[in-house]
Amino acid sequence: MLFRSIPFIYWKEKGQPNKGMGRAARKKDTGDGKMVISLFHRHRQGLAVLMLAAAVLVTMAVKRADISSAGKSSPVSSTAESAPPASSASGAAASGKTAAAAATGGQEMRAVWVPYYTLDMSGQQQKGKDVFLKHYTEIVQNAKARGMNALVVHVRAFSDAMYPSKLYPWSHLTGCTQGTAPGYDPLKEMVRITHGAGLQFHAWINPLRVQLGAAPSILAEGNPWNRFSKDSAKAGWAASCKSGKYLDPGWEGVRQYIADGAAEVAANYDVDGIQFDDYFYPEDSDDSFDAASYRAYCAGKKAGEVLSRQDWRCANINDLISRTYRAIKKSRPQAVFGVSPQGNLENDRKIGADAAAWCQAEGYVDYVCPQVYYNYNNPILPYEKAVHSWRSLVTAKGVKLYFGLGMYKADTSADSGSWSGSTDIIARQIKTARAQHCDGFMLFAYDDMMAPGRQQEVQNVMKMFS
């Protein structure tokens, strides 16, 4: 079926959503709010359904032009576009199932995130290839010694690249000004070193973020913020809000641009997988953020045909995820594509991430890794309850379920002090999740795993991995 009504299952929660800025800012979803399972369908007038179905047929009949030559600027036109096309999803999902099995070698995923600030050479006195490679080699050795079998490494944090790219400028994290080549290919070397140690390498991408506050302080001429602003056909493709600058996924051209960027990594590097994290629409974005793209979407539509802004944003992100999945499979069929959303599904929806759909339909992802950074005695969203709910949510064939665990909270005063004084919370969380037959774990983050005050917690995790 080209048009189908997919139920949304989400946790409707009362209370304040997470106000953090994602993993890289180290502010995590606390799970505030009462969890209730809610199931409903979107209803649209019959005429709207027929028009949306027709839109899908037209979309599938027209070959999407290359982003660099077409300069497309049309926003998503229907909810149906957010679902993977039936003709391509089945084949891609089949290859994705094989890829997921190959990437883990049939073993439990045991990964650690390596965020951009762990790799950042910009503030170091000694820079260059040798210094970077020595530092990264130590990361790999330390991760392997602690039972990890995979690294999820930041390769595009601010619409820039830790590799030579035709779409994005060089990252300032190499120690140079953004846009300046460091004289070597960090991604190529990181993949080589990681695989040489027998570990998997997953490339971690922030799909929309350009600048967080004043970081990076200088945006290269080749940065999409500057490049799009000089092109009248793409002038609205990037937008700003209080927290920073971001790409606006309300434009089809932006979604294709991001998908092409992921495909570029998959095509040019022997990565085991590519991951998007929980940075989608900025949490502090109001209607002014995407006013132009939403206005373009609404133009010419009758009453009953227009999605609410929130549903439209979710449709845009669903389309982005589906496009990226297909682009990666075309470039490197054996590579897996996954997303690590917040553990709180209502908070996900508020930033346009309809994670429930990705769990329930083939053709979006090979895995999901919700960030369930909650303790057992969280009064609102206890860890065990969150794990049970996510386990029941993942029903699509071939989609694996990993759990993101908050090593950064171990033995801290986080969550009203419920983590302090304990040295086995993460180990117990692994045991609980295994009882739900999950497929593995990802720990946030490398620096926290290496912190002197958390080594007893790490030792207990290592026992679970031995």
UniProtKB/TrEMBL annotation:
Family matches, as InterPro entries: Divisome_Glycosyl_Hydrolase, GH, GHL10
Biased composition range(s): Low complexity: 73-93
Transmembrane segments: none
Residue span, Glycosyl hydrolase-like domain: 108-412
Pfam families attached to this UniProt entry: GHL10
Protein source organism: Caproicibacterium lactatifermentans
GO MF, one annotated term: hydrolase activity
Stretches for region Disordered: 70-93
Protein's UniProt name: Family 10 glycosylhydrolase
Gene3D superfamilies assigned to the protein according to its UniProt record, in alphabetical order: Glycosidases (3.20.20.80)
